[in-house]
What we know:
The protein has six helices and five strands. It has helices at 11-19, 30-45, 85-94, 104-114, 120-124, 134-149, and strands at 7-10, 50-54, 67-68, 73-74, 101-103.
Amino acid sequence: xxxxxxxxxxxxxxxxxxxxxxxxxxxxxxxxAANARAYHRRIKANPNQVIKVVASxxxxxxxxxxxxxxxxxxxxxxxxxxxxxxxxxxxxxxxxEIDMKITVSELRNRIxxxxxxxxxxxxxxxxxxxxxxxxxxxxxxxxxSDAESQR
Length: 151
Ligand code: SF4
């Protein structure tokens, strides 16, 4: 594992990797889940971990059944008129852009300050919220914010 290197995440995975609990269950297939879990652990363990925002498939997309490996693009999100919209819908409110590098701490703080509830993608585009306890994860993140501001 390239511990010293930036983790490459596409826009909407910035949100997922902070809010979802990758340990809670396998999604897609065991290899996808194990890979995503390894990155999730790194993100959780190190607030200084650098994340690079990428335009299409990132490190957590490996082994996904929707990944077009030849083009490094997602068959669900990277083609057609709505290409990348799911990412832009997260990047724009966060004020982040493709190719930016941010730390986990910066990402967590920005999500806390910008989102007051789970974004539309969690209800419209994703079947994994219950499995990965995303609602709980989001509220836990907000409570951590409260705890920090009271110090
Ligand atoms: S519900 Fe889906 S899109 Fe929303 S944070 Fe969880 S895994 Fe990501």
